[in-house]
Amino acid sequence: MINIILFGPPGSGKGTQAEKLVKKYSLLHISTGDLFRYNLKNDTKLGKEAKKYIDKGELVPDRVTIKMLKEKVEANPKVKGYIFDGFPRTLPQSRALDRLLKTRGGVSKLLMLDVPDEELIKRLVQRGKTSGRKDDTDKKIISNRLSVYKETTLPVFNYYVKKDCSVKIWGVGDIKLIFERLSLEIDSLKGVRRKKTTSKKSSPKKATKKKASPKKAVTKKKTISKKATTKTSAKKKSTPKKTTAKTSKSKAKKTTKK
Ligand code: C5P
Ligand code: MG
């Protein structure tokens, strides 16, 4: 199974990108924020409980969120994998997810959309105009959500750095380019079927095998990936085929334009 955590602060584009990614990779999109909003709209018991926190930009208690997520995963066992959007947001949620995915292939990658605060605030205020979401319109709530992200949610990124799963992706610019950066990271996972391969160059022996080495198959794409994404320092120490750390934003833009 391919299990992706789409990570990042509120307004970083997780929902937008998740929608595109689930189509491309035939995965199930699980957005805990959307699940809460569905319950809010239908005035369920869960919705009533969650409202108290969402309206303030606080996190719903782990017990409630984990139960809801677990039920959603267990209700959809026959999928190729999941894209988790907005979950996990705390360390206990991360540990619960790891337990839940133990028999489902584990977390394949955490992809963090890296977007500066000023841009996030601009996007959230803009979104609030059409979404009608109270937590997107009130500047105080927005600011609280950003603080909660930094204090409580960011440690989740480091938790998966230790598991060599975390990757930072520059999340500003053209939606298609950001999508491409994310796709390259998913393509580099074992067992992901790629759309285009360069199998022409591989040896006859390799060509007869259906599952050619992922390394060979994406040589071209890997090169772009190196420049288009930014890795954490922990990543730097990993296998040589992994990308190196400091890639400037401008460089990323230049490369992807080619
Ligand atoms: O993910 P999204 O930004 O749509 O979530 C909206 C709100 O739902 C959050 O600000 C938070 O109040 C709540 N939430 C949560 N725990 C999660 C996901 C969302 O408390 N794991
Ligand atoms: Mg969202």
Total of DSSP H or I helical runs spanning 4+ residues: 14
Largest sheet: 5 strands, parallel
How much helicity do the residues have? 55-70%
Let me know the CATH homologous superfamily of the domain at 2-115 and 153-201.
Answer: P-loop containing nucleotide triphosphate hydrolases
Strand content bin: 5-15%
- Structural class from helices and strands? alpha/beta
Low-confidence stretches: 199-228, 231-258
Head-to-tail CA distance between termini: 32 Å
Element-level helix/strand string:
EHEHHHEHEHHHEHHHHHH
Shape: globular
The rounded Rg comes to 19 Å
CATH domain class name of the domain at 2-115 and 153-201: Alpha Beta
Bound molecules: cytidine-5'-monophosphate, magnesium ion
Second rung of CATH, namely the architecture of the domain at 2-115 and 153-201:
3-Layer(aba) Sandwich
- Please count the beta strands (DSSP E, at least 2 residues each): 5
User: What is the CATH topology of the domain at 2-115 and 153-201?
Assistant: Rossmann fold
Q: How is the largest sheet built, in terms of strand order? A: 2-3-1-4-5
Mean pLDDT: 83
